[in-house]
Amino acid sequence: MAKSFFVVKVLLISCLLLVSNLGFANSKNPLKADAIFTAIDNGIAINDHQQYLAYIDELDSLIAPNDAWRQLRKDRARCWSFDIYTEGEIDKALAFVEEALKNPLLAQYPSHQLDLAMCKAWYLEQNGEVEVALKSYNKAVNDAYKIEDLRLVADARSIRGYLHSYQGNFTQALEDLITAQSMYQNLNLPAWEELNLYEIANAYRRLGDQKSAIRYFKQLHQSKIASGNFDVANTISVSIAIAEEELGHLERAKARFNEAYLYWGKKGDQMGQATVGVNIAGTLIKLGEFEQAQQYLDSAAPHILASDEGFYAFLHLFQAQIYLAENQFDNALASVNEARDAFERVKNITGLAQLQQLKSEIFVKQLNWQQAYVALNEYVKLHNELDKKLLSSHTTEMRTRFNADQIEQENNHLIENQQLRDIELAMLEQNKLQQWIIIILGGLILLILSVFAYKQSQKNKLLSSLALTDDLTQLPNRRYIYDKAQLCLEQAIKAQVAFSVISFDADNFKAINDNFGHEVGDLALKLLAQICRNELSGDQEAARVGGEEFLIILPNTNKTQAYEIASTLVQKISNADFKSFPQGFKLTISAGVASLKSDNHKLSSLLKQADKALYQAKADGRNQAQMS
């Protein structure tokens, strides 16, 4: 099968070359234009923006007016070329993309249309229309999957992940960015891999995992130094400084900021120097060096526009802190209001929380207790909102790793389909005189796909059971148990019988891995799985749904019976024979029990009740079971 498929591919490519040679008579220099498009796709704009602009201008002389595909591809490249740091360029970009989206030929080229729509959303985000941009990014992700354009899926999830990260939605941010990273690797786009990895590091920094962020940043920094890309290396160094400041290493942060400030000064880049100036001012304020911080803010202020929401907001936040230290309360409140408007435009909850805390401190110094209480109460609300986001964020990496095989399969499927679609697109672009070739090739492709689909279906039958089993414990995995639980829940509701679940995990499992090593941790998980098999019977079933997390479904079992099963498991595991484990090894579990209620028929609610009971068991001292 593999050899015959290769022969057919050679035949397809040969026919396409014949068609292409006939079509070149109406073009100027499409081969050179395609080489430029390849350079653009590979990330020339990341490292050399001036060369990127030169390439776009050169495309005007290379593409024939009637070459619709390349003309639209050129529009895509030009859309992303506007410099958002130059005043008026965002408005020009939006005007350009609005006009480009009116082209009626876009209906024939969905990838071109989608990329232009995403480009428009990005400029709207830079213009402060964040919610509109986010809705567009969500639509772009869905549309990219529908047309199976792997590159646009990666771009859309990467750009959406950056926005989620800035807004504090770290779970969604890391899920988008890590998925995009996998896709860029499959597409062999190292420049975009590095850029996306930079955003992953930023997400970890904003999440609070500064050590992970610094590790990623330093990896990128060394790569850029080695390649001679000192501008980007300097930008990454600033990110390291921000992370160092968050860790409380203020002198280290100050030194890195100062190096970056001097670097941009020597380059004559006033905007770059201004942004670093805002950052170093924040560090100096924490060190109590208010006079020097004010000097940096004064130098930065003329170059930081209101449209640069992030830096503009922090500039006024830091200015307010200085005014407060100098007892200039009215000026401090005015700066707080300026910063608040900018933070609200980009939905930066972290920044808004800092502002409310600062506002409360100002009112306290003014002895305005009522307003201080109002500001502090608003700070608590914002902080609670941030805490909720942070509580869910720790599961992101685990969930993404758990779905890694699925992501890889989806990506490979997208790549295969994209290759076939590229062949089809190349055929459709040719002169009408060669349409008979397209019909023949279409038939060959259908034949190939039919044979491939048959082979794939046979292979999928073998892989399906593996895809639903946890490799370490040989228990069912998350996907299987959730589907089975939903089915059992629906049957219980229909038959009006009991249905319960038990959620449990190993106590202090991180300490086991740290003290005895991951091999012992794996043996402990296998032991938990074996005890579950020994204790469960009939249609009762256990599954591993996470690192040390397990879920048991119990059809025709009420809450009391489920609690007895959970208590038995707790006792059996606590009293298990640990002779084969290292000296001092101990293993216990905490379990939560929940049962179907007449007023709530949602699986998600049932699982949340079990998790809540599990958390209560942890809080009450572990090594026990609790009912919801």
From TrEMBL:
E.C. code: 2.7.7.65
GGDEF domain residues: 497-628
Keyword Transferase belongs to the record: yes
Biological process, per Gene Ontology: cell adhesion involved in single-species biofilm formation; negative regulation of bacterial-type flagellum-dependent cell motility
Protein keywords: Membrane, Nucleotidyltransferase, Signal, Transferase, Transmembrane, Transmembrane helix
Official protein name in the record: diguanylate cyclase
Cofactor(s), names only, from the UniProt record: Mg(2+)
Catalytic activity: 2 GTP = 3',3'-c-di-GMP + 2 diphosphate
Endpoints of the signal sequence: 1-25
GO CC terms of this entry: plasma membrane
Enzyme class: transferase
NCBIfam families xrefs: GGDEF
Pfam families: GGDEF, TPR_8
Segments crossing the lipid bilayer: 436-454
The organism of origin for this protein: Shewanella pneumatophori
Single GO molecular function: diguanylate cyclase activity
